[in-house]
């Protein structure tokens, strides 16, 4: 096997490791930035999805976050107990929405998270960002 073949064989693993390291690093940074607001990144993500969707079935929120039913139930109960979301039963569906306190908290957290991600991608041009998005969408 040539050096080029060996390098190409290892390339997907190296790219995967880079993606994981980058994700872990930024996750830690976002978690640390959200801590003073009393939020985990998972809680922020859930609140941000509800901010975007408005009132939405709990299953739809779970699907958009790639949560299992148990995981969604756990986080929903925590946010309900803190008064950040409401959950109404509508037939067989549970519909979640932000409370005023939840809306205020996610609005406070958004600029913090956005600043971290803007810094993360600041060395990329607009074309490179679109290319990166396109490539990531093609991953299986």
Automatic annotation (TrEMBL):
InterPro entries, A to Z: HTH_MarR-typ, MarR/SlyA-like, WH-like_DNA-bd_sf, WH_DNA-bd_sf
Transmembrane regions listed in the UniProt entry: none
PROSITE patterns: HTH_MARR_2
Superkingdom of origin: Bacteria
Pfam families: MarR_2
SMART domains: HTH_MARR (SM00347)
Residues of the HTH marR-type domain: 1-140
Gene Ontology biological-process entries: response to stress
GO molecular function, one term: DNA-binding transcription factor activity
Coiled-coil stretches noted in the UniProt entry, renumbered to this chain: none
PANTHER family according to UniProt: HTH-TYPE TRANSCRIPTIONAL REPRESSOR YETL, TRANSCRIPTIONAL REGULATOR, MARR FAMILY
Protein name per Swiss-Prot or TrEMBL: MarR family transcriptional regulator
Source species of the chain: Deinococcus sp. VB142
């Amino acid at each position: 096997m040539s050096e080029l073949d060996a390098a190409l064989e290892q390339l997907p693993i190296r790219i995967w490791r880079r993606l994981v390291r980058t994700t872990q690093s930024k996750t830690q940074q976002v978690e640390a930035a959200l801590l003073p607001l009393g939020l985990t990144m998972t809680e922020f993500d859930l609140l941000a999805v509800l901010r975007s969707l408005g009132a939405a079935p709990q299953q739809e929120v779970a699907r958009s976050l790639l949560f299992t039913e148990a995981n969604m139930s756990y986080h929903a109960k925590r946010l309900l107990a803190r008064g950040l979301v409401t959950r109404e039963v509508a037939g067989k569906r549970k519909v979640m929405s932000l409370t005023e306190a939840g809306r205020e908290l996610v609005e406070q957290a958004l600029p913090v998270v956005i600043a971290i991600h803007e810094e993360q991608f600041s060395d990329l041009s607009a074309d490179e960002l679109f290319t990166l998005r396109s490539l990531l969408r093609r991953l299986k």
